[in-house]
Design a protein that fits this description.
The protein is of the alpha/beta class and about 250 residues long. It has a single domain, classed as Rossmann fold (3-Layer(aba) Sandwich), CATH 3.40.50. Helices cover about 45% and strands about 20% of the residues. The protein contains nine helices and seven strands; from the N terminus they run ααβαβαβαβαβαααββ. It has a seven-stranded mixed β-sheet, with helices on both faces. The radius of gyration is 17 Å and the shape is globular.
Amino acid sequence: MNTPTHAMKDGTVTDEFDHAAKAYDRLVAANPGYHAHLEISARRLGLPGEGAGLRLLDLGCGTGASTAALLRVLPKARIVGVDASSGMLEAARAKRWPASVSFHRARAEELTPAWATEHLGGPVDAVFGAYLIRNCPDPDALLTGVRALLRPGGRLLLHEYSVADSVAARAVWSAVCWGVVIPAGRILTGRADLFRYLWRSVLEFDGRTTLLERMRRAGLVSVSDAPLPGWQYGVTHTFVGMRPLDTPEVDR
């Protein structure tokens, strides 16, 4: 199958994540620095102390790798993981978590402030989205929706691939995908559709400057980015923005 990237984002990609869920942790474990990089991004949220009293939303939580990174950095925070894939959530829920962590199935762009109040007790202090926005059909709608979930001064962090601004990064990404990711994915899951989509979706996604501008258009301020170390330097980045302090909270 060679479904166009935009078509997969409308639903097929969720089915592919369901299919790959049981092998997903083994696949990412083969990526040097995968878990350490998520923890670096979690620290880049810059939240105080151990997170006591904070409400965190982990959008696109998958099998819980990003949730675990947040928990290591902010062990006293309330963390809710959300994903559209039932297979990935099943794998996440099968792991051991403290009572402060829970998981819910939903599409990230469909969440509302009322949902946040129901599941977290109010507006959230931070939203963490690892490898999320690239898989959404409408990135601008996602960012606008996330901004509405945040309390004034709340922070959004995107941990995401972005190679459009660098010829070297594009070359590294393609070499790793075709040399390692796609063959390994085919061996472990029995098909390569999700991993070919991963390769294409990253090449087609925003460059750093474009994504930063999207975040500003969505009403986020103090927007910035920083690279991750290792082989993914220039390939994977942390993007951070904040809901302005003087904006009223609006239900939708």
